[in-house]
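Hi R.,

Here's the chain you asked about this morning:
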Amino acid sequence: MKGYTIGIDVFDRPQAFNADSDPLVRVHAGKLRKLLATYYATEGAQDVWRIDIPKGTYVPEYRRQRVTSPPTADAGRIASPPRRTANRRFSWLPAPCPRRLPCYPSCRC
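And here is the predicted structure, written out as tokens:
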């Protein structure tokens, strides 16, 4: 997967898009890597599958993690899903775009 292809297909850049001079794809890939690392260090620590995007490439890697859960006092109790308050966003959601016009075709701002 190339930066040029991502720039055109995801960010709706023109055919003359130059991935070497326009950092858009690299910047968003870096942000995605940080978000994934944060997610798997916190909420996703117990997930069975992990998605990584190694530096130097845009091709995701899917890996099965070894999940070990520490014994708890209430191991027999069924855990309820985390509650979401009305004004709190899930940490894995991207921040809303501050622009009045959409940044890219799938942007919901």
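One quick note: Helices lie at 3-9, 24-41.

Cheers,
M.
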